[in-house]
Design brief:
Blueprint (H helix, E strand, L loop, with lengths): L22 H13 L7 H17 L8 H19 L2 H12 L7 H17 L2 H11 L5 H8 L3 H21 L4
Helix pairs in contact: 1-2, 1-3, 2-3, 3-6, 4-5, 5-8, 6-8, 7-8
């Protein structure tokens, strides 16, 4: 009886460590997905989707992105937006609140209140504003990088950021969190 053996990348002439995302990029993708509202249970699937899209891009012969980390963050943000649109608002909020729970410590109550308020504020932003806010302030992409990756003018990115920050700040003041 023949023993079936799964081909690895090493068998195909590549290095077994040819993962298109390094550990830091994977953490960034997970964070962008989580901030975009993807539940903890679905984060691994989201990371795999980003890997798949990067591999498909390479397999199709297209040029590799100049900045894989930025490209992966934008793809993750788009995946999060797709997921966000597919779920009802109340389900998203409940899952996000459950993911934000952390062990209590002396200042934990203040941190939890702020986390909940920020999550609710992000939830209320339009998709385009939430996307640029997450890419700018969490994924730490520059305005120019966001504009290039999303295919929109820098002025549009700046406008969306300004509007999103103003709305989030107003929400936090309204809730008397800050």
């Amino acid at each position: 009886m023949a023993v079936l053996r799964r081909k690895t990348r090493r068998d195909q002439g590549g290095d077994a460590q040819d993962d298109p995302l390094d550990a830091a990029q994977e953490r960034r993708v997970r964070a962008v997905l989580a901030l975009g509202g993807v539940p903890q249970a679905d984060l691994l699937d989201g990371v795999q989707q980003v890997r798949l899209r990067l591999l498909e891009r390479a397999a199709s012969g297209r040029e590799a992105p100049r900045d894989v980390s930025a490209w992966a963050a934008v793809v993750a943000s788009n995946l999060a937006m797709d997921w966000h649109r597919a779920k009802r608002r109340q389900e998203r909020l409940g899952e996000r609140l459950a993911a934000l729970r952390q062990p209590a410590h002396p200042s934990g109550e203040d941190t939890s209140v702020l986390s909940v308020a920020v999550a609710q504020g992000l939830d209320e932003l339009p998709d385009a504003q939430r996307q640029v806010l997450v890419l700018r302030f969490f994924a730490d992409l520059p305005v120019r990088g966001i504009a290039e990756e999303l295919g929109i003018p820098e002025g549009t990115v700046k406008s969306r950021l300004h509007t999103a920050v103003r709305a989030l700040r107003a929400r936090l003041h309204e809730d008397e969190v800050v």
